[in-house]
Design goal:
Blueprint (H helix, E strand, L loop, with lengths): L15 H32 L6 H39 L1
Helix pairs in contact: 1-2
């Protein structure tokens, strides 16, 4: 008799270092992306190109930084949600 091979795909196992690297990436993204957005828009766009007043450039840059913060948080939540679904489906198999 011939042995039958089990052709089930093996579940993806994430090591602790992979999880740490993922969390570290999103933490750095959440911290530095709004800061870079604020200062780059303030000095490169609002102060030099559009010649807005100091208060206006601060307000517009802060709004843009908050939007990028929410974008980065959304990316993190999206990844966490869909990775949780995948790992739950793999555990059921």
């Amino acid at each position: 008799m011939a042995k039958q091979k089990n052709n089930k795909p093996k579940p993806v196992v994430h090591s602790d270092s992979t999880a740490f690297q993922t969390v570290l990436f999103y933490c750095l993204l959440i911290i530095f992306l709004p800061i870079v957005t604020f200062f780059s828009l303030k000095y490169m766009l609002f102060d030099s190109v559009l010649q807005a007043t100091s208060i206006q450039s601060n307000i517009y840059s802060a709004v843009a930084a908050v939007i990028t913060l929410h974008f980065a948080l959304g990316l993190y939540l999206y990844r966490a949600y869909f990775n949780a679904e995948k790992s739950a489906a793999e555990k059921e198999d």
